[in-house]
Amino acid sequence: MELHCLSGSLSLPYCYLSGCKSYRIYAELLAIPVRSSRLPLLSDAMPAPTHLFPLIRNCEISRICSTVCYCHHKHLCCFSSHFAHGHFRYAPQKRFAALYRPKENFNHFIHARDYASTPQRFYLTPPQVNSILKANEYSFKVPEFDGKNVSSVLGFDSNQLPANAPIEDRRSAATCLQTRGMLLGVFDGHAGCACAQAVSERLFYYIAVSLLPHETLLEIENAVESGRALLPILQWHKHPNDYFSKEASKLYFNSLRTYWQELIDLNSGETTDVKEALINAFKRLDNDISLEAQVGDPNSFLNYLVLRVAFSGATACVAHVDGVDLHVANTGDSRAMLGVQEEDGSWSAVNLSYDHNAQNEREVERVKTEHPKSEEKSLVKQDRLLGLLMPFRAFGDVKFKWSIELQKRVVESGPDQLNDNEYTKFIPPNYHTPPYLTAEPEVIHHKLRPQDKFLVLATDGLWETMHRQDVARIVGEYLTGVHHQQPIAVGGYKVTLGQMHGLLTERRARISSVFEDQNAATHLIRHAVGNNEFGTVDHERLSKMLSLPEELARMYRDDITIIVVQFNSHVIGACQNEEL
Amino acid sequence: GSRQLPGVGILPLRSPSSVHACAQVKRALRYQERLAAGTTRFCAGIVSTARHVSIELKMADYSNKLYQQLEQETGVQTGYMKTGSISLAQTQDRLISLKRIASSLNVMGIPCEIITPKQVAQLHPLINIHDLVGAMYVPEDALVSSANVSLALATAASRNGVQIHERTSVSHVLIQKGRVTGVETDRGKIQCQYFVNCAGQVGLLKLSPSLVPVKDRWRSLSLLNSLPTSFLSSAAIVDLDGRIYIRNWQGGILSGGFEKNPKPLFTEGRNQLEIQNLQEDWDHFEPLLSALLRRMPDLEALQIMQLVNCPESFTPDMRCIMGESPTVRGYFVLAGMNSAGISYGGGAGKYLAEWMVNGYPSENVWPLDLKRFGTLQSSRTFLRHRVMEVMPLMCDLKVPRWDFQTGRQLRTSPLYDRLDAQGARWMEKHGFERVKYFVPPGKDLLDLDQSKTFYKPDWFDIVGSEVKCCKEAVCVIDMSSFTKFEISSTGDQALESLQYLFSNDLDVPVGHVVHTGMLNEKGGYENDCSIARLSKRSFFMISPTDQQVHCWAWLKNRLPNDSNLTMEDVTWKYTALNLIGPRAVDVLSELSYAPITPEHFPSLFCKEMSVGYANGIRVMSITHTGEPGFMLYIPIEYALHVYNEVMNMGQKYGIRNAGYYALRSLRIEKFFAFWGQDLDAFTTPMECGREFQVKLDKGMQFVGQEALLEQKQNGVYKRFTMFILEDHDTDMDLWPWWGEPIFRNGRYVGKTTSSAYSYTLERHVCLGFVHHFDEKTGEELVVTTDFINQGEYEIDIAGQRFQAKAKLYPFSSLFTHRRRKDEVELSGYQRE
């Protein structure tokens, strides 16, 4: 077994293409100790990789490993490894999923062979931890006029913590300038970040345009036509790290212009319904992504870009807040959650989105009704769409949307990079009646009440590690500065003084961690990554998780992107009274 | 009589002596809940005599001796173990504080030692000694089981005929003509003459008018596991810097402490009776736990048994409350033990029993007397704030001249803002803000925390210059806090009553001021006051600030119930300004256009005059310090005007503001005794050289006359003496405070009662009482002048002895000489 595995790892190019079954077995074997609890994973598995990696790197294998890393950065070229066992990003147990990747499997296997090397302890100092956690944090406060904030939104905090390198999550926030309201969204890319990047840049324009009244659309079109300055549509609230692609802007703009021209032509004369606008915008953008890839672009860079966008995928969870009207449009398995403060001051969570994945029975039902009965068994396998994809709705992912012929034609006529990529060539099994995937969102409308204090939009990286109830409490307590720590009771347990002391120190650190963070999203990430079994931030754990080598981080966690929107209860209360 | 304890705080105050007392007046104990159901059950049970206040120390000592014999007397196991106690010091200042206690324990015959960290380790191997600078070991301190002690006391009480009713609640106390006549309970009425409320916060809020204890929380932590057997008999550890105590407890350890951030607890009228242990709150206990593990790291492996969290009563000044209600006779209170109930319980019970039976306890309990508080100090908000401050202070360093920071600015003079703007620093007495000293512009003092010192304080020079100004020019001190009563009658009733109640002869011409004691039957000072005869039938009486409640109650209870005789508290009506200094005469005469020369206005006179535009200012030629000067009693609406006039006019005479620290220095170097500090109910005028204020032959009987006559014939057993420290370095040595033991020819003879630095003598002056204990029997003998004069004296400050010169009379001649010389200098040269 030892030999077999080592050879498997060494013959990497081979397993990219086929040799996959053996890995799965190992993965499951190795998973057993891991599955039992989260802590042993850290304490046992951690030292081995950090310790052993340098050793291996020095050997011949290092070349292979670095190839893998390099490929990974290229988004498209390492898909084969993901798809060999299903979509890596959405593997059934994501902690094992990482093991599918040969290099990690290799490390683990060596570890499984029991290297009794003393664990090499390396901790980040609290300031180091903070600088990592805060690297991407962003806060926006809605400006006040005459000391009054008339918006129902006080502001928002957002942050991202990468696990993939580069991160595949994206976030966006903007204020609509030609209509009222604010847009906020999180986007979780898979098979690379190209699609998530494109959606994060473009989706809000599509939504804003969908919301615009006819006159404004005309005005904008006339301005473009006559080369006059355009009315600004959106005011973006961006972190410096959130970039927009300059090269594609012209292409994107043209697609958008086509969209509004069509809207002008259609001119239904009806007032725009937000729900409809959101659905239309989502569908239109996905359609444009698909079309752009089919048409291609004379510029080879752009041509490759639009293909990368179309062949990768992204989920989107977008909130539109206008006064007391909150709409959440969701495609995929990111989630929106409302934090509600009960009369007794405690916090509860209200879901404002449904996950589009195999855990959602309605969603499984929907997919099944859209395809012939003969495909019923192959549609959802191992909780994945066609046995491959975890989210049941997504942008991009044309492999699940286009006909086989179209896919082949585009890949063949496409650039060499695309042609050489095994993933793009790979057709999902049992692919009979495309499309299997849609970007159409489910929209939930919620009338904000004074007790609705905040909205959390986050990618599944957060929801995997934290229950929404805990999220509501942690954010609620952070925002109000009031802490309802569950009192500790010894009753009946055998606890030593030392243990109790350790526990209490941690709990105190938890309180103080609140003061460390100026950003609710950062605070939430601190908890998501650093929480121990007592639900308190454990610096040691936090430090370990954040000091994981790039290649390993994805084993223990997913990219996390969070936006916390804080509502203005006074304005909401006043609006409510007016409506009454 | 009947004693009741509804609800929680139960004190083991049934000491045998009190039980004997009880037996005479058949009494019934009433409990709303079960005996010892309150905090008593979880009391640490450390009987520790390491107390700062001497009366508390005596109570603890008595309790210890009582509990020791209790098991034998009653057959109830009390868990009494004489393990000793070790108080640890992590800082030099803490060690000084412990040394001060050690000195007073030693002179009381309680064995006590200051030991090194190494010795600590030998006594108690589990202790981490690395951060210690020393410790105090009291080998006779003991551990008891609090609940069992209560039970044993109850058993003893029952045997002596006391009935105990458990689970009985008192609905109200029956009062007729200001006297307790009985109590109404849910099981019927009980006739009684005396009623003692020991119910702690619940009972006090519910049943009585002007009381001030507050509940707060403290924690006990019990752990159980195998411990080295040596620990079982090892001493209790008190780590004040770590805010914790540790004792062995049923084979394990019990530890608790006083957290820095207490949670206040008010029952808000709810009948929260059987004390449910408030929910365990580990997070709140965390700092104490850290301190515990730091002190005994080996405890880490011990298993936790229980965290108990129970309420505890605290008082606004960290001393317990006992005594008779000022408004209802026969209504007694004993409460607010500040979590030292088990240490004080026995002694407190004894004193209270004596109080009821004999009319007064056998020791001076004024520091604990209920009447030291006014109604203002029982405001809920005041208590809430003050108790939050007090509880952390329990473990803080007790340094001289400490002022509470909360519950301030309650009673103020109308000049408060004016004085504050001129740099006044304030202290509080009986709720009244008084100036300590004035910080000159441009001078900075240390922060509050840094200013805590046992050595020379940072205000030394400031007060020095104020004193100098009092001596050479003129100073103004706002003394509005003094208690002021007016007693008048239609006929001679006022004079007759006062002549009976006061020792000096008050039948003086109108306009005279008389210094006199208000004595009790034993001749002791209940009050020391100045009385001005305003007219034939009305008197104006000035007493110390904290006499407001006590003196009122004393007089009310003794003045005849005659509608033609009225007494009024006019404290709030007058602002009092004290002009001190040789130039006071000049200022006043310029302001009043009246001759103020000694011929026209001799010492101890009172005149109504106009000052500035203001009429009806009562001017008295007294100063309370022995310096020349005047007291101005100004109706409050004129206060600002008169103050401004005085300051303006005084400028050319070098007038400035001064505070109480200067006053204190002046009065102590002049050998003036102050009531509440030097004088108490156990001190007679004969013992402090004030025979001249007693007119034994004034032609009528007065309270205390017999006792004084006897003393005059037989001599006194203690003598108020002034000590000038000889080899004390003001800059380098610890400063005396009060309570320092006095040694005569190497033998303990008494304690100091107050002390101050005399800027004139450039020496420290301590005032105190000298006793004469028989060398063999320890019996108290008569103290003669020769005895005082023919001794070599030493004052013990925190274990270090300083030579002192004893004097029975002030340096009057020296002062006059010096002053005359100064005047010569002043007139001779233009001085700065």
Automatic annotation (TrEMBL), chain A:
Record's SMART domains?
PP2Cc
- Span of the secretion signal? none
What does the UniProt keyword field contain? Acetylation, Calcium, Hydrolase, Magnesium, Metal-binding, Mitochondrion, Protein phosphatase, Transit peptide
Species of provenance: Anser cygnoides
Q: Does the keyword Mitochondrion apply?
A: yes
Name the InterPro entries on file: PP2C, PP2C_BS, PPM-type-like_dom_sf, PPM-type_phosphatase-like_dom
Can you say where in the cell this protein is located? Mitochondrion
Main subcellular localisation: mitochondrion
Q: How does it assemble?
A: Heterodimer of a catalytic (PDP1) and a regulatory (PDPR) subunit.
Obligatory cofactor(s): Mn(2+); Mg(2+)
This chain's protein is named [Pyruvate dehydrogenase [acetyl-transferring]]-phosphatase 1, mitochondrial
GO-annotated cellular components: mitochondrion
Q: Name one GO molecular function term.
A: [pyruvate dehydrogenase (acetyl-transferring)]-phosphatase activity
| Enzyme Commission designation | 3.1.3.43
Task: Show the catalytic activity.
Answer: O-phospho-L-seryl-[pyruvate dehydrogenase E1 alpha subunit] + H2O = L-seryl-[pyruvate dehydrogenase E1 alpha subunit] + phosphate
Q: Does the keyword Flavoprotein apply?
A: no
Q: Which family does it belong to?
A: Belongs to the PP2C family.
- Superkingdom in the source lineage: Eukaryota
List residues of the PPM-type phosphatase domain.
Answer: 153-567
Top-rank EC class of the record's enzyme:
hydrolase
Q: What does the UniProt function comment say about this protein?
A: Mitochondrial enzyme that catalyzes the dephosphorylation and concomitant reactivation of the alpha subunit of the E1 component of the pyruvate dehydrogenase complex (PDC), thereby stimulating the conversion of pyruvate into acetyl-CoA.
From TrEMBL, chain B:
Q: Which residues form the FAD dependent oxidoreductase central domain?
A: 358-413
Asked if the Swiss-Prot or TrEMBL record annotates the protein with the keyword Ribonucleoprotein, the reply is no
Q: What is its main location?
A: mitochondrion
- Kindly state which keywords UniProt assigns to this record, in alphabetical order: Mitochondrion, Transit peptide
Per UniProt, subcellular location reads as: Mitochondrion matrix
The residue ranges of the FAD dependent oxidoreductase domain are 34-355
- Show the InterPro entries listed in the entry: FAD-dep_OxRdtase (IPR006076), FAD/NAD-bd_sf (IPR036188), FAO_M (IPR032503), GcvT/YgfZ/DmdA (IPR028896), GcvT/YgfZ_C (IPR029043), GcvT_C (IPR013977), GCVT_N (IPR006222), TrmE/GcvT-like (IPR027266)
Q: Which residues form the GCVT N-terminal domain?
A: 415-698
SUPFAM superfamilies attached here?
Answer: Aminomethyltransferase beta-barrel domain, FAD-linked reductases, C-terminal domain, FAD/NAD(P)-binding domain, Folate-binding domain
Q: Which Gene3D superfamilies match?
A: Aminomethyltransferase beta-barrel domains, D-Amino Acid Oxidase, subunit A, domain 2, FAD/NAD(P)-binding domain, Probable tRNA modification gtpase trme, domain 1
Provide the Gene Ontology terms for cellular component. Answer: mitochondrial matrix
Q: Where is the Aminomethyltransferase C-terminal domain?
A: 718-811
Q: Which family does it belong to?
A: Belongs to the GcvT family.
- Oligomeric form and interacting partners: Heterodimer of a catalytic (PDP1) and a regulatory (PDPR) subunit.
- Which purpose does this protein serve, as stated in its record? Decreases the sensitivity of PDP1 to magnesium ions, and this inhibition is reversed by the polyamine spermine.
List the protein's name: Pyruvate dehydrogenase phosphatase regulatory subunit, mitochondrial
- Organism equals Anser cygnoides (Swan goose)
